[in-house]
Design goal:
heterodimer, A: 2 helices, B: about 575 residues, mainly alpha, about 70% helix
């Protein structure tokens, strides 16, 4: 058995989430015209961050036991 | 479509993690069992997501969206009829034999149950098929990336081949499985916002069905032809697929689907890697849950694309035409990514697409190196060597498996019709397989000679049926009718379904008849391999929803609900 998959999974999505949401905060609203005016980078970035954090938490909790 | 820095950054993060997982797993690969079977140590949910992801290659993602545009909601038959029941059957009835017999591959199970020649037939055809499938996947990727991003064909092929080679060489099946889990979530997270934005743009589900009604009427079908699953299947001429309900149920839902999900080592290998019998049985059942929902992720985008193109109204975008004047359905998802996603999300969407290409390739490569090493090399070329020797051979097989796939990608690029012929040949070889497994697992009288000749006759029946029939509007040749045209089908899909039905029936009948006139193996040799001679699995200490039967009931109820809800 290798290391817990939830750790790299969580780390990758948390990182992608931070990248997307920071880019979403700093980009101009005109960027989002094709996405029907929704700042998808910010909102979806936060979703990815939340998912990544959840996976990291589950993985770290299992490791402490 | 021109990716910006942020998009490249997101792709780079993904590639970094893919290779990082391979490096982290390197020190765990000590025996051939670690390398080919993950040391049978994978938790059920991880094996389940990998089971799903291994099948979720790019042809699946791109092809299902294309079918969604071409045929509409009825494409979900490939999921709710053509996958879920077979996955449930695999988990409940077949995994006990695959996992319990300690076979290391599907061909090895055939050796244990039948004989050497049946194994050899299956192992060799499977090994050749996986190499070509992986090559075709690479070819498709090279073409698409060239079209979308202007990347050089050779660059895409070699780069993706090297990355897949890197992580499988380092971490074997575990590496492939872990990366398939990453790929699964990338595809889910990459395509969900796309479906949301697309649906919002066409006015939600109601807006989509209204536009699809227009698409259907323009082409002379009933208004619901694109937005229903069963309603228009009474007659082949009433739906764009050109199939009727019996062909769908028997051809797709029974023969093709059970033949793929229950016997293809590519997917079964993931379940064999699970840490216990119970986890192995739950693997396909867990995979069935997201599988059921995938039509919304991969078919609905195609429906949105065709609704935007032909459904009237001015919003959205339009699918381009091919050189011959037909619509280029394959571009549904890639073009929607470019249309709706701003930079940032575009990077995530492209990464999801690349991930699906690589998971399709990696799945084939890991299945190939295992079958090559255990069922061809160890069985016929070099018996009785040390485990370390077979581990090195597995690594070597990974290298030449990928090299052969790259070669196949170039062949596909140069000679398109060779690939079409090969795929047709594989379809003939695969069509009868499930009859052999069904009889082998559930009738102890079935003999090795019978299995072997049954398979040959099934393949011959498939070829003969294809040679004697033709889809309407095609010329005799690669599409069929190369012997004589005795019957014409309303569509290519209908012809495929019936080819499978004939192959299955021929194999079933011949296997049963030959079994009756050949000597069966003594019963004590078949314990653990045949249903009637194997103790039932009991898991009394588990909650009902963790037991295969409980989970299976839930999954089937879900599939029935979806079929009715989208009737």
């Amino acid at each position: 058995m290798g290391p817990d998959i939830r750790l790299p999974l969580g780390a990758m999505f948390a990182l992608l989430g931070v990248l997307l949401s920071v880019f979403g905060l700093t980009s101009s609203p005109a960027t989002y015209a094709p996405a029907l005016g929704i700042n998808v980078n910010l909102w979806w970035g936060l979703v990815l961050l939340a998912f990544g954090a959840l996976m990291l938490w589950l993985g770290l909790r299992a490791r402490r036991r | 479509m021109h990716p910006a820095t942020i998009d490249w950054l997101i792709m780079a993060v993904y590639f970094g993690f893919v290779l990082g997982v391979g490096f982290a797993l390197r020190r765990y690969m000590k025996t051939s069992s670690d390398y080919f079977l993950s040391g049978r140590s994978i938790p059920a949910w991880v094996a389940g997501l990998a089971f799903l992801s291994a099948n979720l290659g790019a042809q699946e993602v791109i092809g299902m969206a294309a079918s969604g545009a071409k045929y509409g909601m009825a494409t979900s038959h490939f999921y709710w009829v053509g996958a879920i029941p077979a996955m449930v059957f695999l988990g409940v009835f077949m995994m006990p034999f695959y996992y319990g017999s300690k076979a290391r591959s599907v061909p090895e199970y055939l050796k244990l149950r039948f004989d050497e020649k049946t194994r050899a037939l299956n192992a060799i055809s499977f090994a050749v098929m996986t190499v070509f499938s992986s090559g075709i996947s690479m070819y498709a990727m090279g073409l698409l990336l060239h079209l979308l991003l202007g990347w050089d064909f050779s660059l895409s092929v070699w780069l993706s081949a090297l990355i897949v080679l890197g992580y499988i060489l380092l971490g074997g099946l575990t590496s492939a499985i872990y990366n398939e889990v990453l790929q699964f979530f990338l595809i889910v997270f990459g395509f969900t916002p796309l479906v949301y934005l697309g649906l919002k743009d066409v006015g939600g589900w109601t807006g989509l069905t209204a536009r699809l009604a227009h698409v259907a009427s323009v082409q002379g079908y009933a208004p619901q032809a694109w937005s229903s699953t069963w309603r228009e299947l009474g007659h082949a001429s009433a739906n764009p697929m050109g199939v009727e309900w019996f062909g769908v149920l028997m051809g797709l839902g029974f023969v093709l689907s059970f033949g793929y999900w229950c016997t293809d080592f590519l997917v079964v290998q993931r379940a064999m890697a699970a840490h216990s019998m119970s986890a192995a049985r739950r693997t396909p059942l867990i995979a069935a849950v997201p599988k059921m929902l995938f039509p919304f992720l991969v078919i609905v985008p195609g429906m949105i694309a065709i609704a935007s193109t032909l459904g009237g109204g001015s919003s959205g975008f339009a699918l381009p035409h091919k050189a011959d004047g037909s619509l280029n359905y394959d571009l549904s998802i890639p073009l929607m990514l470019g249309h709706y996603f701003p930079h940032g999300m575009l990077g995530l969407g492209l990464t999801a697409l690349l991930a699906s290409f690589m998971s399709g390739m990696a799945g084939n490569v890991t299945a190939f190196n295992t079958v090559w090493t255990y069922d061809i090399y160890q069985a016929y070329l070099h018996r009785g060597a040390s485990d370390q020797h077979y581990l090195s051979m597995g690594r070597l097989a990974t290298v030449f498996g990928i090299a052969l796939s790259v070669a196949a990608a170039y062949v596909a690029n140069r000679f398109n019709n060779i690939m079409d012929m090969l795929q047709l040949l594989f379809a003939f070889v695969n069509a009868p397989l499930f009859a052999t497994f069904l009889l082998g697992m559930f009738w102890k009288r079935t003999t090795g000679h019978a299995a072997f000749f049954g398979l040959l006759c099934g393949t011959a029946a498939a070829a003969l049926h294809h040679g004697l029939t033709l889809p309407r509007g095609s010329v005799p040749g690669i599409k069929g009718g190369w012997l004589d045209v005795l019957h014409s089908y309303p569509s290519e899909m209908a012809q495929n379904f019936w080819t499978a039905i004939w192959a299955f029936c021929a194999c079933f009948v011949v296997t049963a008849l030959v079994s009756l006139v050949t000597r069966p193996r003594p019963e004590q040799e078949l314990v653990g391999l045949v249903y009637s001679l194997t103790a039932r699995q009991r898991e009394p200490d588990q909650a009902w929803y963790l037991r295969p039967a409980g989970l299976a009931a839930l999954v089937l109820a879900g599939a029935i609900f979806l079929n009715i809800a989208f009737w």
